[in-house]
Structures
1.
Amino acid sequence: MAEVQGTCDARFDGVRRALSSSLDSGADVGASVAVYLHGEPVVDIWGGFVDEARSAPWERDTLTNVWSTTKTMTFLCALMLADRGQLDFHAPVATYWPEFAQAGKAAIEVRHIMGHTAGLSGWDVLIDPPELLADWEFCTSALAAQKPWWEPGTASGYHSLTQGFLIGEVVRRIAGTTIGAFFAEEVAKPLGADFFIGLPESEDARVSNVIPPPLMDLESLGLPELMVKTLGNPPLDGNLALHEWWRRAEIPAANGHGNARSVAAIQSVIAGRGESGGVRLLSAAGTDPIFEEQANGTDLVMGMPTRFGMGYGLGNAEIPLGPRGCRWGGFGGSVIRIDQEAGLAVSYVMNRMEAGGEGDPRGETIVRETHQALA
C-alpha cells in the first residue's frame, strides 16, 4: 500500500487506508485528508507526489488549487459580516452596491446571490482572453450592468465563477477591502490556516499544480444552453490554474489555494457553531442562516437536483445530510463536508482532477469512512 504521512487517531484508520488505496491504485497522484472533530484535528494525513512525473513528494504544507471549495471561504466572510450586523441577507444587493440596480436588478437580494438564484450564472460579455477574470472591475461592472438570465429567486442556476465576484463586491463595499484581504486578516490569520484567495508569489514553491482532465467541448455534447453559456465563457478548463495570473488574482469562487488541513480547520468554525480550537469568528447563532433553504430542485445549470442554503449546499435525496449538515466541493474532486450535530468537518484535497462534478468517489469514500469510524 502507498505510504501515507501525518497523524491519524486509531479509530479513523479506515480513512488512512482509503487514502493509501487511492494513491496505490493511481486514482490519486498526490492528496491530503483532514478531519476536525469539535475543533481539534483527529486526522491530518497526506501522501503521493506533487506531479505526474513523481518528481517530489506531496509534503505536509503542499498547496493546490481547490476550485469551488473556495466558495465556502467566501460564504464564511459574508456570514461574519452578517453576524456583525453589517450585512443583511434579505436586503437588496443594491443597498451595498448601488450600481447593481441596473437592468431591472433593484429587487435582487443578497440571499439570491448566496443561493445561486440571482439569474447571473455567467456573463453576457465575452471573457476572452480568460485573463479578464483577473480584472475585478471589469468582471463586477459587467455583472452590475447585466440583465438576469431567468427570474431571480425562482430557481437555482449554479453561479460557478460569478458568485465569488458578486459576494466579493458586496464584501468590498462593506469592509472597504478586497475579499482576499478580508479573508486573510479576519479568517486565515486568527486560525493560523494556510489558505489563500489570491496566492502570494512567496508561496509558489509549495504549490502542486493540478493535473487537469481533458477539456470538454460543451457545445458538441448537446448540453442545455444555460449550462453552455455559464460554463463555456470562459471555457471550464483546469489548465487555467497553471498560470501565474490565475494564482495572483482574487477569483473567490474558484482560485483558492490550500490543502485539506486548512480547509477543514477553517470550516470547523461552521461545525463548531462559530468557534474552533478556541478561536471564535461568529456568534453561536451566526451559522444559522446557512440552513435557511434558498433553492430546492433541479439546478438550471448543473441539471441535477440540488438544495442550497445560504451559500452552502444542503442535504437532499441524492446527498443525504443531517438537519445541521452542509457541504460543497470543487471542480475535479476536492470536498468539504460539515456536520454541526457531530461537530465534524471533513476535507479531501488532491492534485489529479476528475472530469465529473458532484459525487467523486475518492472524496465520498473519505467521508463515508469518517462517518463509519464515528458510528
2.
Amino acid sequence: MAAKTATELRRNDRLRLAAAIAKQSAVRRLRLLLACLVSFTVASCQLLGDGTSVGSVSPGTLRPSLTNDIGAREHPRVVATYGGVYKDPGAERAVASVVGRLVAASDDPSQSYKITILNSPAINAFALPGGYLYITRGLLALANDTSEVAAVLAHEMAHVTANHAIKRQQRAEAKQLVNRILTDVVQDSEEARKAIISSQLSFARFSQVQELEADAIGVRTLAKAKFDPYAAARFLRSMAAYARYQSADKTSTSAPDFLSSHPSTPERLQIAVKSARQIGAPGIGERDRDRYLTQIDGMLYGDDPLEGFVRGRSFLHKALGIGFTVPAGYILENSTEAVLASNGDGTAIRFDGADVSGFSSLADYMKSGWINGLLPESVRETTINGLPGVTGAAITQGWSFRIAVVRIGRTGYRFIFASRSPNQRFDEDFRQTADSFRQLTPTERARLQSLRLKVVKTKPGDTPRKLAVGMSGVEPSRRLEFFSILNDLDPNKTIATGTAVKLVVE
C-alpha cells in the first residue's frame, strides 16, 4: 500500500464496500478488481529503458495507427497500475538478450515491440495492440533461465502477431450488444438468461482458443530461436506451483495474475509438451541458467519499499510508520491500492486508508455513506493501542462485514473483513487483527529493509533444507517449500555442487 497524502487518500473516501469485496470470496478475486484497467493486456518488460523499439513497423491486419493508438493510450494506465517502470541494468540485459532472437524467429519479423519491465511483485506478462509488451519483475524472479523468459515473451509476441487483443475486444463488444438486445427484446427472462450465459461461455472459449494458439506459436518461435522448447511447459508448472504456495486454501483455484489471464489447464500443458516433442527430445536448445541468474542477482524482490512490506503474517510500512498482523492461516498480499488477505475458510480482508479530516468523529465517518448495508446500532467508538478508533458491521448481498477504522492525524486506516458464513472465529480474527494495529518505533522503522535476490553457487553437501534456512521474508515453516518453488528444485534431493540458486535476503 503506497504512502499517500491526505489529498490522494480522499479519492478513495467514497469506497463502495459492496463493489470492492462484496462479490469476492478470496484475495485472488479482490486482486482482479484492482487490475480491471488492463483486462486484455499481458505482462512485459521495459527492456530498453529509453523506450527504444526492437524491429521495424509492420502494417499488420489493421491500420497501424489504430493499434498504436490503443497501445499508446493504455500504456500509462498499465504502468501506473503495476507500480511504474522497474529500472535494473541486469534485468534489462536479461530480457534484451532474447528479444532480438525471438523477433527474427517470429511469424512477423517486421513487427516492432516496446518492452517494459513493471515494478510489481506479481507474476504477470501481457501485450497491448501496437507491440506493447509487459513483464513484471515478479515473473523475472520466478524464472530460472533465459529460455523460460523467452517462452513468456514468445507467447506474448504471438498474441501481437495474431492480433488477438483487437479480435478479443471486437468479440467482447459484440457480446455486450447481444446481451443488451436479449435483455431488452426477449420477453422470457429465463430464456434471455440462458442465452446470455451461452454468449458468455462462447466468449470465454474464444479467449481460451487464443491462449492455446499463442502457446503453439510461442513454442515454435522458441525453438526456431534456438531456445529450449520445453521451457514453456516448465515455466507453466512453476507458476502453478507458486499459485498453490500463495493460496491460503490449498484446494482453491487461486493463481498468479499471469495464470488468471492465461489459464493453466492440463490441456495447455499437454499442448506445450506436445509442441516441444514435435521439435525434438528434451535436452535440446539453450537454457543458460547461470548467466540469467547472474543478471538478476540483487534484483528487488517482493514489495517495493514505497508500498510497505509483507513479512510473513505482518504488514509493515516504513514511511507511514504503521503495522499490523493477521491471524494464522491468512495469506497477505500487498498492492498499490490496498493490502489484501484471505484464509481457507472464505474470509477476505482489505486494509487501506482514507482522509477523515472532514469529520468531527470517527463514528460520523463510519455513518457517512461509504459502507453499503451498515448496521447503525453496531457502530462503537474505541481505542486501539492508544489510537482513536471505531468499529461496525454491515450486511449486504449475502455478505457479512466487520469494519474498523483507526485514526492517525488526518488519515483513517480501515480494516474490512468479509464472509458469507460469519462465525465466532470470523469475529475473533477481526478483533485480533484490528487490535494488532500499531505505530512502529523508530528502531523498527530503521531496521526495515527491502528484500533482494541473492544468487549463490552451492557447495558440497548443500541441500534445499539447509539453504532455505537463510531465506528472509518467509515464515520459517514455509521456507523449504518457497525455496524449492523459487529454484524449481526437488526439496528432497541433494543439489549438485556448483548449481546457481536464488535466495531471498534483506
